[in-house]
């Protein structure tokens, strides 16, 4: 069974808590016991030496082991905390006072005894416990000499068997059980408080997890999600609350993007259908005239042949122009256009573009002016992309301007920017249509026809080109009074 975050966290906390308690209890008990043993050994370290110096049996050397056994018995009655042993110089136990069978060892390791007697060693130091093979206890020891001859060692166990028995009974007493119970209850309460705190702190995280599950179950349907998602406080200092707010904002943003993508997809499909129709029209006309020439070429007069050829060339040009615009728009929308920005004089570019349309303007008696006629402003932009925009805007202006009209290319400077206005005295655009003129395939109802067919891609291309140049193409127009397109360019830094 898979556990959720809080049960897993609670399980880990309880496990770690219990391990920490056990380790702390063990280490504390060990340190307490070691400290107690060191204190007792320091307190009684001279006991054996004093007994050897003060007792006649030990002071003159030992020969009467029975009397020494009685002495040890008397000393144990007076000090139940001690056990007394007399050892040979080799560590053999010669005599002691204990019930038969209690002492199991016959020999004591002399190394700890010699360390205690002959060196200043750090306490506590442990020696063999004669009554428990393999166990060790703190002790006091002193050598027994007769004149200068070593007779043996007085070996005193500190905290003997009776002491251990009494201590064990005390640990099992009622008061000790009460203390242990109190400690257990205290630890249980502490653990409970910790678990409650963890639940309090992890509750927002669970709410966020539930929100994510709801999002998956609702398949990112915004209408289904908004009523059921948790409410988050944006002003909260809790990181989970802020994360929840960010999650909700992200959902709304993604939903808006999905909506926009669906809208763009619908527009693309409609655009593809319209462009297919626009491509089919000149293509069908081109095919028809060429087939006519191929089938009836011998029966046609020279004038008819030339007419059919001229119409076919016109349709071919229209077809190429339309395909070029489609490819250009596709490259712009796909972000596959590279910019080559440089510093150049804007006045020269405006005069060059105006000169390119001089013949077309004269045919309609239209005047093209650059205002002011001479200026030295340099801009930093992609000259090719900017020329493409100016060419398209001026071509549109000529197409929609009546004879004896004018087109002005006006340049003004403000806030380290150059504003370029392309205004005409043409037919203008109605207020209802002006908001849609930058959409691909949109053509105003009063669009003038020219020598080439137009499918409403030119202004969409200009808008995207100006966006690449970090500028915005804007339009102002009054129906019957003309139109003005404007954009801003960055002034080049003078060197």
UniProtKB/TrEMBL annotation:
<keyword id="KW-1133">Transmembrane helix</keyword>
<feature type="transmembrane region" description="Helical">
    <location>
        <begin position="6"/>
        <end position="27"/>
    </location>
</feature>
<dbReference type="InterPro" id="IPR036097">
    <property type="entry name" value="HisK_dim/P_sf"/>
</dbReference>
<dbReference type="Pfam" id="PF00512">
    <property type="entry name" value="HisKA"/>
</dbReference>
<keyword id="KW-0902">Two-component regulatory system</keyword>
<keyword id="KW-0418">Kinase</keyword>
<keyword id="KW-0812">Transmembrane</keyword>
<dbReference type="InterPro" id="IPR005467">
    <property type="entry name" value="His_kinase_dom"/>
</dbReference>
<dbReference type="InterPro" id="IPR004358">
    <property type="entry name" value="Sig_transdc_His_kin-like_C"/>
</dbReference>
<dbReference type="GO" id="GO:0000155">
    <property type="term" value="F:phosphorelay sensor kinase activity"/>
</dbReference>
<dbReference type="InterPro" id="IPR003594">
    <property type="entry name" value="HATPase_dom"/>
</dbReference>
<keyword id="KW-0597">Phosphoprotein</keyword>
<dbReference type="InterPro" id="IPR050736">
    <property type="entry name" value="Sensor_HK_Regulatory"/>
</dbReference>
<keyword id="KW-0472">Membrane</keyword>
<keyword id="KW-0808">Transferase</keyword>
<dbReference type="Pfam" id="PF02518">
    <property type="entry name" value="HATPase_c"/>
</dbReference>
<dbReference type="InterPro" id="IPR003661">
    <property type="entry name" value="HisK_dim/P_dom"/>
</dbReference>
<dbReference type="InterPro" id="IPR036890">
    <property type="entry name" value="HATPase_C_sf"/>
</dbReference>
<feature type="transmembrane region" description="Helical">
    <location>
        <begin position="179"/>
        <end position="201"/>
    </location>
</feature>
<protein>
    <recommendedName>
        <fullName>histidine kinase</fullName>
        <ecNumber>2.7.13.3</ecNumber>
    </recommendedName>
</protein>
<feature type="domain" description="Histidine kinase">
    <location>
        <begin position="274"/>
        <end position="493"/>
    </location>
</feature>
């Amino acid at each position: 069974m898979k556990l959720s975050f809080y049960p897993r966290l609670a399980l880990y906390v309880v496990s770690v808590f219990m391990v920490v308690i056990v380790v702390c209890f063990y280490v504390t008990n060990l340190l307490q016991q070691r400290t107690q043993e060191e204190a007792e050994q320091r307190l009684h370290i001279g006991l054996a030496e004093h007994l050897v110096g003060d007792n006649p049996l030990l002071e003159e050397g030992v020969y009467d082991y029975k009397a020494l056994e009685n002495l040890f018995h008397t000393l144990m009655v007076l000090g139940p905390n001690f056990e007394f042993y007399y050892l040979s110089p080799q560590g053999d136990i010669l005599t002691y006072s204990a019930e038969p069978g209690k002492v199991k060892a016959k020999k004591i390791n002399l190394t700890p005894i010699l360390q205690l007697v002959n060196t200043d060693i750090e306490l506590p130091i442990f020696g063999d416990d004669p009554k428990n093979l393999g166990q060790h206890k703190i002790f006091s020891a002193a050598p027994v000499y007769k004149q200068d001859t070593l007779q043996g060692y007085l070996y005193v166990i500190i905290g003997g068997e009776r002491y251990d028995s009494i201590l064990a009974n005390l640990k099992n007493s009622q008061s000790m059980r009460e203390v242990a119970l109190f400690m257990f209850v205290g630890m249980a309460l502490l653990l409970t408080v910790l678990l409650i705190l963890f639940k309090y702190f992890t509750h927002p995280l669970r709410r966020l997890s539930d929100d994510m599950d709801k999002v998956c179950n609702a398949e990112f349907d915004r209408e289904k999600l908004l009523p059921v998602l948790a409410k988050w406080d944006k002003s909260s200092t809790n990181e989970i609350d802020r994360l929840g707010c960010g999650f909700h904002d992200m959902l709304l943003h993604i939903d808006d993007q999905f909506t926009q993508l669906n809208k763009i997809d619908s527009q693309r499909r409609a655009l593809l259908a319209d462009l297919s129709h626009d491509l089919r029209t000149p293509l069908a006309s081109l095919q028809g005239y060429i087939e006519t020439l191929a089938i009836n070429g011998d029966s046609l007069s020279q004038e008819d042949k030339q007419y059919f050829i001229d119409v076919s060339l016109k349709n071919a040009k229209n077809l190429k122009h339309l395909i070029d615009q489609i490819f250009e728009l596709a490259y712009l929308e796909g972000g596959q256009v590279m910019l080559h920005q440089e510093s150049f004089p804007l006045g020269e570019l405006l005069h060059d573009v105006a000169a390119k349309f001089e013949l077309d303007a004269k045919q309609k008696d239209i005047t093209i002016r650059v205002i002011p006629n001479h200026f030295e402003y340099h801009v930093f932009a992609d000259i090719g992309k900017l020329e493409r925009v100016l060419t398209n805007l001026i071509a549109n202006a000529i197409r929609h301007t009546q004879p004896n009209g004018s087109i002005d290319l006006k340049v003004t400077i403000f806030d380290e920017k150059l504003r370029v206005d392309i205004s005409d005295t043409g037919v203008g655009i109605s207020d209802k249509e002006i908001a849609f003129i930058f959409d691909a395939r949109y053509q105003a109802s009063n669009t003038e026809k020219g020598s080439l067919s137009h499918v409403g891609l030119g202004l969409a291309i200009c808008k995207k080109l100006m966006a690449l140049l970090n500028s915005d193409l804007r339009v102002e127009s009054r129906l019957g009074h003309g139109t003005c397109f404007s954009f801003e360019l960055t002034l080049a830094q003078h060197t």
